[in-house]
Specification:
It is a single chain. By secondary structure, this protein is α+β, with helices and mostly antiparallel strands. About 40% of the residues lie in helices and about 20% in strands. It has two domains: about 170 residues, no CATH class; about 180 residues, no CATH class. It contains eleven helices and 16 strands. It has a seven-stranded antiparallel beta sheet. A five-stranded mixed beta sheet has the order 10-9-8-11-14. Helix 7 crosses helix 10. It is globular and about 80 Å long.
């Protein structure tokens, strides 16, 4: 299996300054490569510059600027250029699919937070033993940095990434050949229905409450955002005052706390399901489409004006879906189930909340309210989310039999 391990770095003051310089120089390389591609397409008969051409220029760039670009790992700079190449590949893929294109943007130093080393031993070296307080990671141009390794590492380290989150620094290790750890079978199966009122509902009738971490942080976030908005916009980083930097850090800290709380809740909920059930069925949710904004409705009687399209209500629903973190939870659930030897089955969500689990009748009228389900044919009444979870479970078991 493939797994990623994330550990907290404890750099000295000098090492932290070097880490910031490394991010700034890689950001400059990324933006320079992006500018070269833009200029080549606009001014040289729509010429496309590719990764191979830009990678071949790295030797000249490092020789021209040895104090900045020349001191960092060559392979990490290649990884930064690959990152730009992947952004352009995704841009062209979206164009062909008829989606919103999203041309790659220049990165500000505050939005370029990760440097990747593609191979352990090439510009970086991970050297540790389990629970060793002297764990270190060595980075070219910086030296040996202390690591808080809070759990043992398994598998073979393939890539090493250094990531900044607010004022903290982390090392992320992508590992191959991580052994699975199967747990004893329970013989139980379950279907789950994801929701907003309840984070999830099981086919056994259990409701797990939605913690709404983002909504709970809204009051503090609003105050912090107002304080930040009071400063002039488009101010360069070197011109920002100490108060401006403090206001920015406070907003980032509040968002980071809500993100960690959401991640912690997803891990605990997924672990509870994996421990209790051998087979877990869930809806195959297309979250990206679920959170899209409604299309504008032009007013035929008044050119240039638009009719109400429910965008305000949809925006509130989108925020609730994002706050629930369904995508993060499902990714964690699949990873934990794979390690524990459990089966997770995604099923099509169509009509799962409208089909009666007793007689099989499917109708929109069966679901009278958000919570109430009452079949118009047989009169079966139950909680709508429990009905949805039961239908998801039956569809998942049917797929198991068919396989």
């Amino acid at each position: 299996m493939k797994r990623a391990y994330k550990f907290l770095l404890r750099p000295t003051t000098g090492q932290e300054a070097l880490l910031r310089a490394m991010l700034a120089d890689h950001c400059s390389l990324y933006n320079g490569a992006l500018q070269e591609r833009r200029d080549a397409y606009r001014h040289t008969s729509k010429t496309t510059v590719r990764y191979g051409q830009q990678s071949a220029q790295l030797k000249e760039i490092r020789a021209f600027d040895p104090q900045r670009q020349g001191r960092w790992s060559f392979s990490s700079q290649q990884a930064t250029l690959r990152r730009l190449d992947k952004a352009f590949a995704a841009f062209f893929r979206r164009i062909k699919a008829g989606q919103k294109a999203g041309y790659p943007r220049f990165k500000g130093i505050g939005h370029f937070d990760t440097v990747t080393f593609p191979k352990d031993g090439d510009g970086c070296r991970w050297n540790s033993t389990p629970h060793d307080p002297q764990t270190r990671v060595r980075l070219q141009g910086i030296g040996h940095i202390r690591v808080h390794q809070h759990r043992p590492l398994e598998g073979r380290v393939k890539t090493v990434s250094v990531k900044r989150e607010g004022k903290r620094w982390f090392v992320v290790l992508a590992c191959d050949d991580v052994p699975a750890k199967p747990i004893l079978a329970t013989g139980a199966v379950v279907g789950i229905d994801m929701g907003i009122a309840s984070f999830l509902t099981t086919s056994d009738g259990e409701h797990i409450a939605n913690p709404r971490h983002g909504r709970n942080a809204n009051a503090k976030l609003a105050d912090a955002q107002r304080a930040l908005d009071g400063f002039p916009t488009r101010r360069k980083a070197k011109d920002r005052t100490k108060k401006h930097r403090a206001a920015t850090a406070k907003v980032a800290k509040l968002y980071a706390k809500a993100r960690r709380q959401r991640l912690d809740h997803a891990h605990k909920a997924a672990l509870a399901l994996v421990r209790d059930y051998d087979v877990i069925a869930h809806e195959r949710l297309d979250i990206a489409n679920m959170v899209t904004s409604p299309a504008p409705r032009p007013d035929p009687r008044r050119p240039g004006r638009f009719l109400p399209n429910g965008s305000s209500a949809k925006a509130g629903l989108n925020r609730s879906i994002a706050d629930a973190g369904w995508g993060v939870f499902l990714a964690i659930l699949h990873a934990k189930a794979e390690s524990a030897g459990r089966s997770v089955i995604p099923v099509a969500p169509r009509n799962t909340s409208r089909r009666c689990p007793e007689c099989g009748h499917t109708a929109k009228e069966n679901r009278t309210t958000q919570e109430k389900f009452e079949c118009v044919r047989c009169g079966h009444a139950a909680h709508a989310d429990v009905v949805g979870a039961l239908n998801v479970l039956r569809a998942g078991l049917a797929l198991c039999v068919a396989a």
